[in-house]
From TrEMBL:
<dbReference type="InterPro" id="IPR008920">
    <property type="entry name" value="TF_FadR/GntR_C"/>
</dbReference>
<dbReference type="InterPro" id="IPR011711">
    <property type="entry name" value="GntR_C"/>
</dbReference>
<dbReference type="GO" id="GO:0003677">
    <property type="term" value="F:DNA binding"/>
</dbReference>
<feature type="domain" description="HTH gntR-type">
    <location>
        <begin position="9"/>
        <end position="76"/>
    </location>
</feature>
<dbReference type="GO" id="GO:0003700">
    <property type="term" value="F:DNA-binding transcription factor activity"/>
</dbReference>
<keyword id="KW-0804">Transcription</keyword>
<keyword id="KW-0238">DNA-binding</keyword>
<dbReference type="InterPro" id="IPR036388">
    <property type="entry name" value="WH-like_DNA-bd_sf"/>
</dbReference>
<dbReference type="InterPro" id="IPR000524">
    <property type="entry name" value="Tscrpt_reg_HTH_GntR"/>
</dbReference>
<dbReference type="Pfam" id="PF00392">
    <property type="entry name" value="GntR"/>
</dbReference>
<keyword id="KW-0805">Transcription regulation</keyword>
<dbReference type="InterPro" id="IPR036390">
    <property type="entry name" value="WH_DNA-bd_sf"/>
</dbReference>
<dbReference type="Pfam" id="PF07729">
    <property type="entry name" value="FCD"/>
</dbReference>
<protein>
    <submittedName>
        <fullName>DNA-binding transcriptional regulator, GntR family</fullName>
    </submittedName>
</protein>
Length: 231
């Protein structure tokens, strides 16, 4: 029998994930007023988990709440973009380096663990899904696949600390990525194959360098586009 706390947490987490996803992909644009009643109806759930989800999303920066004004969807964090990319570059360079070192150790042992193989197979599936999305020009599918790929690299690194840190900013990264996917989505996705190849080869120096450049190019492309739109 599942503990009562787990039963209560499940609906809250589900609706939190669904609201966050709708914000990231534009179904709930910035400035949209969100009420417990409307969201409960939309997602087919009671108001209590919706209330808890909105509090959590406010802590994440996706929702703003003001006294007597209720809750609204926050603005896309363009002012924080450069800092978010800076943190992301440091984190993901480290995860790629560690993932390559771990891959080398797995193959040197002669028998990679089932845990490692399962994580690697998941990444292979994500890459195939992304390649298919690019071929079909379904760029709308790339933001979610992109964050799944990067979190997959973190899992492959075997570092729970780095994975947890990346998860903390993953939603904001996905939000920024979704706004720029039409401009750099195909090119950015294609860079993933070379990163995973360096990891598989156990080449930690190349894996770190390729990941750092990958994130840096995403940052430059986003900031250049944003500055052009504001000029």
């Amino acid at each position: 029998m599942q503990p009562a706390g787990d039963e209560e947490a499940a609906p809250k987490q589900r609706v939190q994930d669904e609201i966050r996803r709708d914000i990231i992909f534009g179904s709930l644009p910035p400035g949209t007023r969100v009420t417990e009643t409307a969201l409960a109806t939309k997602y087919g759930i009671s108001r209590v988990p919706v209330r808890e989800a909105l509090r959590a999303l406010e802590a994440e920066g996706f929702v703003e709440s003001k006294p007597y004004a209720g809750s609204t969807v926050s603005k896309i964090p363009v002012d924080d973009a450069e800092d978010l990319f800076f943190v992301r570059e440091a984190l993901e360079s480290a995860t790629a380096r560690r993932a390559a070192r771990r891959a080398a150790a797995q193959f040197d042992s002669g028998a990679p663990s089932s845990e490692w193989w399962n994580a690697r197979k998941l990444l292979a599936g994500i890459l195939d899904e992304g390649d298919a999305a690019v071929a079909q020009n379904r760029l709308d599918l790339l933001p979610e696949l992109n964050i799944r790929f990067h979190l997959g690299i973190a899992e492959l690194s075997g570092s729970s600390s780095l994975t947890a840190l990346l998860r903390q900013i993953a939603g904001k990264i996905e939000w920024l990525y979704a706004t720029d996917v039409d401009n750099r989505g195909k090119e950015s996705w294609g860079e993933h194959r070379s990163i995973i190849a360096a990891i598989d080869a156990g080449n930690f120096a190349d894996a770190e360098k390729l990941m750092a450049n990958h994130v840096h190019q995403s940052k430059e492309g986003y900031l250049d586009r944003f500055s052009t739109e504001q000029s």
